[in-house]
Amino acid sequence: MFKQREVTKRIGFKLTAAVGLMTLLTIGVFAYFNIRSHNDSLLAEVERHASQLSDAVRSATEYDMLHNQREVVHESIKRMGRQPSIQRIRVMNKAGRVIYSSEAAEIGQMVDKNGESCYKCHSAGRPLERLEMTDRTRVFRLRSGGPRALAIINPIYNQQSCWTAACHAHSRSQTVLGVLDVTLTLAEVDKDIRRGETEMAVFALVAALSLSVIVAFFVRRWVDKPVEELLAATRHVAGGDLNYMIAEKRDDELGMLARSFNNMTQKLSDARLQLFQSDKMASLGRLAAGVAHEINNPLTGVLTYSSFLLKRTQNQPEIQEDLKVIVRETIRSREIVKSLLDFARQSVPKKTEVDMNQVVARALVVIENELGLKNVKVEKKLDPKAPKATADANQLQQVVINLVVNAADAMAPKGGTVTITTSALNLSPVGTTQIKNAVCPKRHSLIDNEVRIDGKPSVRLKARSEGNEGFVYLNPMYGMDGHHPGISYDVEKGVQFVCPECSTSLLVEGRSCPKCRAPLYAFEVPSKGFVEGCARKECSWQRWEAVDATGQREFVELSVRDTGCGIPKDLRAKIFEPFYSTKGQKGTGLGLSVLWGIVDNHNGTISVDSEVGVGTTFTVRIPSKA
Amino acid sequence: MRKERDILVVDDEPVVTQAVERICTAEGLTVDSAYRGGAGLALLDERVYRLVVCDIMMAEVDGFAFLAEAAKKGVRTPIIMTTGYSTVENAVRSLSCGAIDFIAKPFTADELLGVVRRGLKYDEIMRETVPPAAARHAPACLAYVPCPAKYDRLGYVSWTVMEERGTALLGVSDLFLKTIGGPARIKLLDVDDEVFQGQTCASIGSSDGAEHPVMCPISGRVVAANSDAVADPAIVEKDPYFAGWLYRVLPTDPAADLPHLTSCSSDRM
């Protein structure tokens, strides 16, 4: 649509047309002067030839004229006039009468002295006696439409022999006796010139056309295509596909433009995500404020009246017990609403250098009593050399308290041991870096927000094997074991990995997994290089060179292990979602999602490992330098 | 002569005004209610009150507008703010705008009575100490607190002063101590605990058995708590601005906290 309608407005067309026109103009100007000088030299040649011919005719007839043999002169001129290149030969006397002519009909006629052939000498009134060569010749057409002709006049000067001749035809005082006028046809010369002109025109056209074609080819290749790609990309991005990336395969300015476009899109995508997140938090905040306001008013009624009643009925113990329950539970509701408000106001953490061991110690002081009541023993394995983290101490304390209380609840009612471990951790990026963006060679996003692995959007590929096809979901944490195939396949019997949208193959040709020799798949993480991985379900080999190159990072790791009931596998992904609770009416369901938010705010990770009936371990890793 | 009543409660929730009426009436106080800020202001013109309890989130005239209007009218009745959307920001803003106290909803009867008693006592003290002539010209937004120059205060409750080492000292005002009738017990947080502006940082028990929360004037980490004050609360009553300090804190963001405080130097002008 766009392409067809506006061809004349495209850069390629304009450039090509400009080059074509310039070529045409240059060759045209060159050809014009070239043809002109060629014509001039041709004409000069003809002139020289005519002059020689004219002299020859004069010499040939001189003798006969002196001897007044008119018939011989007539015959000689007639014969000479039959030459194909000679149009006519005539001799005029001083009065302008034609005395001899190769065309018999002309003899005896008068020529007009002001006529074109006489003008040169007679224009000044008194006839000139001597003429330059160029003035003696003239080019004209005998009849309109006919071939051109070149005429040369040759004055016949008075000589001694003329007035001493027997016929005494001329007196001694005369200077010019008459004029010999030889006319040559220029038909051949004109043909020559026309051929030259035609050749030049054809050459100019062919040169302009071929240059245009060559320019069009390179413009198409170097300008049009990349510009079209850029245009397509802007349309994709404008349409909301912020994962769309242009292949960065060129080193010129358009390549740089493509790179900076990708960079911009990436930044835009990040900003949109942040905006979306903060928008979500803002609306949650408004919701929480509304809920808090609406609920707190009726709660005020309940709490004031019940506590007032409690004060007034101090001598009625049977009512007192019931009222105390109402007051206690209303106060608990108040705390829940307060935690909702706290969640909504989860702001940017105030980060300082925090010693995780101190955080643990302080958190335990807060919940000491509660743990005692629940018959929970705490075993601390704190590493004094654990690095300090740049973090919000209060938020981390909230994380520890929540994890320990959850652990205690998981072991209720019989109690057990909670083991809290802190340790220093130097981690390669493997397992600590999340693949947040992934695209196929045709730029379709492979991220699936619906299917989450440990709460994170997975990378979705399509697998084809033995005529079956289905989706394979990869763990987005780099290097983590994680094929979650929607179909079963056997790599030994051949498997194809393709983009779910465009079916472009994602398998790497010619190389195989260094661990198990199975085929490799690869996809691009825009502006962060390629991730390669093993197609075998049981093999977790992955390589992400761009990230490997950044080297190891220091973390402080906190793990809280309980000997409780464990979490079934299918629930593990859900536990970090808001309002998911296993505690029924006891919990508010905000706990783990709040922890998730805090840890994520610190660029850390939180993960869970659990075995039903054996226990659960929550592991939090916070980078030592944020 | 305008009719004198004890308490005016302004809240758009009837259940709240009724509860306040019920509890305060049982204590022998006279209570009027208004369901709109405008109606409350009209009542302030008609009658003289000893104390106002006002909600923040109301349609039309909200709590802050009510505070500003009352100040414009030259009303000297102490005002206590309350809201269901009880954020630290709301509490601090209330105090910096001239309210004498803040109570978060929902509250118990004892919590309400604690605030009301302190408020009435405050009114009593102000009537005794400030001559009526001066009172007419004094803006209601400024409570008269004789704290030392260079000190900053949060409402009339607590004070803070920056020390040379970058730490800040904080404590309670003598006016607050007077409203609770002298401290009998003091409960403080531990060293290394965090305190936040507008949140409760200490609890002072009065001789009648009630507990009075102290709103913290500045956010920071506690580097020292005055154990002498805990051991002998009389020190605080005798010398609340020097020997009777409560905490020495390392402030987290004094630049953000100080604008919410009132400079004690300005009280002297």
- What separation lies between the terminal Cα atoms of chain A? 51 Å
Number of helices of chain A: 14
Query: Which band does the percent of strand residues of chain A land in?
Result: 15-25%
The second-level CATH architecture of the largest domain in chain A is 2-Layer Sandwich
CATH-derived topology of the largest domain in chain A: Beta-Lactamase
> What's the CATH architecture of the largest domain in chain B?
3-Layer(aba) Sandwich
Superfamily (CATH H level) name of the largest domain in chain A? PAS domain
C-alpha geometry of chain B: globular
Please, what is the oligomeric state? heterodimer
Compact summary:
Chain A is of the alpha+beta class. Chain A has helices spanning 2-5, 11-66, 70-80, 119-122, 133-136, 160-164, 187-238, 253-312, 317-344, 356-373, 393-410, 545-548, 569-572, 591-601; strands at 86-93, 98-101, 137-141, 148-157, 176-185, 352-354, 376-382, 389-391, 416-427, 447-453, 456-465, 468-474, 483-485, 496-498, 507-512, 519-524, 530-534, 542-544, 553-561, 605-611, 615-623. In chain A, helix 2 packs antiparallel against helix 3 and helix 11 (393-410) runs antiparallel to helix 14.
Describe the overall structure:
- The complex is a heterodimer of chains A (626) and B (269).
- Chain A is an alpha+beta fold and 626 residues long.
- Chain A has 4 domains: 14-192, 2-Layer Sandwich (Beta-Lactamase); 240-345, Helix Hairpins (Orthogonal Bundle), CATH 1.10.287; 352-428 and 553-623, Histidine kinase-like ATPase, C-terminal domain (Heat Shock Protein 90), CATH 3.30.565.10; 447-548, no CATH class.
- Chain A is built from 14 helices and 21 strands.
- Chain A has helices spanning 2-5, 11-66, 70-80, 119-122, 133-136, 160-164, 187-238, 253-312, 317-344, 356-373, 393-410, 545-548, 569-572, 591-601, and strands spanning 86-93, 98-101, 137-141, 148-157, 176-185, 352-354, 376-382, 389-391, 416-427, 447-453, 456-465, 468-474, 483-485, 496-498, 507-512, 519-524, 530-534, 542-544, 553-561, 605-611, 615-623.
- In chain A, the strands form 5 sheets. Chain A has a 5-stranded antiparallel beta sheet.
- In chain A, helix 8 packs antiparallel against helix 9 (317-344).
- Chain A is rod-shaped and about 180 Å long.
- Chain A starts with a helix and ends with a strand.
- Chain B is α/β, with parallel strands linked by helices.
- Chain B has 2 domains: 3-137, Response regulator (Rossmann fold); 152-267, Beta Barrel (OB fold (Dihydrolipoamide Acetyltransferase, E2P)), CATH 2.40.50.
- Chain B is 35% helix and 28% strand.
- Chain B contains 11 helices and 15 strands.
- Chain B has helices at residues 14-26, 37-46, 63-73, 88-96, 109-129, 132-137, 174-179, 227-231, 234-238, 254-257, 264-267, and strands spanning 3-10, 31-34, 47-55, 79-83, 101-104, 152-154, 158-162, 168-172, 183-188, 194-195, 200-206, 211-215, 220-225, 247-251, 262-263.
- Chain B has a 7-stranded antiparallel beta sheet with strand order 10-13-14-8-7-6-15. A 5-stranded parallel beta sheet of chain B has the order 2-1-3-4-5, sandwiched between helices.
- In chain B, strand 1, helix 1 and strand 2 form a beta-alpha-beta unit.
- In chain B, helix 2 (37-46) runs parallel beside helix 3.
- The longest helix of chain B is centred in the middle third of the chain and has 21 residues, at 109-129.
- Residues 133-143 of chain B have low confidence and may be disordered.
- The interface between A and B is medium-sized, with 32 and 26 residues.
